[in-house]
């Protein structure tokens, strides 16, 4: 990733410059780790701030690179953004007339930048967002965003690598999503809250992060019915007011620590982990032989034997999260027996399997299935993180592999996990960041 594009602001990040993590396997992890706010929520909450003029304050903000990229994107739209990394807060002061362009240098670093599309077209009447992969309109990936915005009265076109949406006044509409897309649900929701009249989004996504953004929008003055269900009914309002909002805890980070406890036969208390957001994943860990204890402020996962391999099938929430799939493949790689992993959301997620096999894992993929035959031991080797969750899965495998595993391209991990190395060190892992 080219970090040079991020200008130096007084609160710009000072992420450690190391490019790889070196893990020496064999340590049992134990202790307590605190879960910050969710990456997949905070980016959308920051975009939602655009809907109201004035200062929005977000708390429990994770100290991750993606937040810095989103902050920069908002600054270029004319917002004043101050991040207090110690306190875990971001204050976004939105001007009366924000800009409307999200440039390629930022969008290419973070696909989630697309979430400014809905709020900008609703608030400013225009959004020019660089296309993440140069996809043409209507191609897989953004078709539901585009179709939904068109239903709401926007004119959407694609020019010079930008997706351009324009609207005088958006109007309410009935929208049926082909698939409960998280990003499309969020964009359409953020557009509909300022549209004239009633919008119904059917087959909407119902991830905890969607509930979080709905909650913030209601606090801002929006009218939304059916929150948490697959039918959202939104009654548009004329304007919204800025609020202070606490980000929902990161269920994927919590789930990653839970898998770490099981793989290392450890005992980890996951403070602020919300077990209700992880029901299937925790149930799978229990099937693998783990003990899960619910606590008032989180949960505890412990393990005293080699885990059993467990079948998983990824699906939209409340199904098993695709963002935990690589971590469970890593678990299955050292599990007793064999397991079938079915990926229904992102086939490219199996790319990391090639890296895992470098550690000695026995995994065969065929389309969207991966057959994992557990091995009693893995052996350390250099590997490369292909995305944020794949990176986490490789580190987990390194924690139990014999010898040293060096995970390269860890900027992917830094995008989604705040203080990843420090948290693992605190739990007793032998891991360090190296150049
Ligand atoms: C979000 C999460 C990501 C998570 C995913 C699924 C963020 C920043 N990212 O991604 O971590 O893995 O939800 O839980 O919140 N699709 C289309 N057309 C569209 C929109 C989506 O075909 O218009 C397809 C995608 O190609 C993909 C599937 O639908 O195959 C799921 O995508 P979606 O739910 O939109 O995921 P994201 O919001 O991109």
Walk me through what this model shows.
A four-stranded mixed β-sheet has the order 22-23-1-24, with helices on one face. Strands 2-15-17-16 form a four-stranded mixed β-sheet, covered by helices on one side. It has a four-stranded mixed β-sheet with strand order 4-5-3-14, covered by helices on one side. 52% of the residues are buried. It folds into two domains: 20-35 and 249-434, Enolpyruvate transferase domain (UDP-n-acetylglucosamine1-carboxyvinyl-transferase, Chain); 39-246, UDP-n-acetylglucosamine1-carboxyvinyl-transferase, Chain (Alpha-beta prism), CATH 3.65.10.10. The chain contains 14 helices and 24 strands. Helix 5 packs parallel to helix 6 (182-192), helix 8 (251-263) runs parallel beside helix 12 and helix 10 (325-333) packs parallel to helix 12 (388-400). Strand 4 (80-84) and strand 5 form a beta hairpin. With 435 residues, the protein is of the alpha/beta class. The protein binds uridine-diphosphate-N-acetylglucosamine.
Largest β sheet strand count, sense and barrel closure: 4 strands, mixed
CATH class of the largest domain: Alpha Beta
Write down how many β-strands occur, each being a DSSP E stretch of 2 or more residues: 24
Task: Choose one word for the global shape.
Answer: elongated
Structural category: alpha/beta
Mean pLDDT: 93
Strand order of the largest sheet: 22-23-1-24
What fraction, in percent, of the residue positions are helical? 25-40%
CATH homology-level superfamily of the largest domain: Enolpyruvate transferase domain
The name of the CATH topology of the largest domain is: UDP-n-acetylglucosamine1-carboxyvinyl-transferase, Chain
* DSSP summary: helix tally: 14
Calculate the terminal CA-CA distance, rounded to whole Å.
15 Å
Radius of gyration: 21 Å
């Amino acid at each position: 990733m080219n970090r040079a594009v991020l200008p130096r602001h007084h609160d710009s990040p000072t992420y450690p410059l190391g490019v790889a993590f070196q893990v020496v396997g064999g340590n049992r992890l134990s202790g307590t780790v605190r879960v910050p706010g969710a990456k997949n929520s905070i980016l959308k909450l920051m975009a939602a701030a655009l809907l109201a003029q004035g200062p929005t304050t977000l708390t429990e903000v994770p100290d991750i690179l993606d937040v810095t990229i989103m902050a920069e994107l908002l600054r270029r739209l004319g917002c004043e953004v101050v991040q207090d990394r110690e306190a875990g807060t971001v204050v976004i002061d939105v001007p009366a007339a924000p800009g409307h362009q999200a440039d390629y240098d930022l969008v290419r670093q973070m696909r989630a930048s697309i979430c400014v599309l809905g709020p900008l077209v609703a608030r400013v009447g225009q959004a020019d967002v660089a296309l993440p992969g140069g996809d043409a309109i209507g191609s897989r990936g953004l078709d539901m965003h585009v179709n939904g915005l068109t239903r709401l009265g926007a004119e959407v076109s694609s020019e010079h690598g930008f997706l351009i949406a324009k609207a005088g006044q958006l109007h309410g509409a009935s929208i049926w999503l082909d698939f409960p897309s998280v990003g499309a649900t969020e964009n359409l929701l953020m557009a509909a809250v300022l549209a004239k009249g009633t919008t119904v989004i059917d087959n909407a996504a119902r991830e905890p992060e969607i509930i979080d953004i709905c909650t913030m929008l209601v606090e801002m003055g929006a009218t939304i019915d059916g929150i948490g269900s697959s039918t959202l009914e939104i009654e548009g309002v004329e304007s919204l007011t800025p609020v202070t909002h606490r980000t929902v805890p990161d269920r994927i980070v919590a789930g990653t620590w839970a898998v770490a406890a099981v793989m290392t036969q450890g005992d980890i208390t996951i403070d602020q982990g919300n077990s209700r957001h992880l029901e299937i994943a925790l149930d799978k860990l229990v099937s693998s032989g783990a003990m899960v204890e619910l606590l008032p402020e989180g949960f505890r996962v412990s393990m005293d034997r080699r885990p059993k391999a467990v079948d998983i099938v990824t699906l939209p929430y409340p199904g098993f999260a695709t963002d935990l799939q690589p971590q469970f493949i890593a678990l299955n790689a050292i599990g007793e027996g064999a397991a079938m992993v079915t990926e229904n959301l992102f086939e490219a997620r199996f790319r990391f399997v090639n890296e895992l096999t470098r550690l000695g894992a026995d995994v065969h993929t065929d389309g969207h299935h991966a057959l994992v035959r557990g091995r009693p031991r893995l052996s350390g080797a250099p590997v490369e993180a292909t995305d944020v969750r794949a990176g986490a899965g490789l580190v987990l495998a390194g924690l139990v592999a014999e010898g040293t595993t060096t995970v390269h391209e860890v900027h992917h991990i830094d995008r989604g996990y705040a203080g990843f190395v420090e948290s693992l060190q605190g739990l007793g892992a032998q891991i360090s960041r190296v150049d």
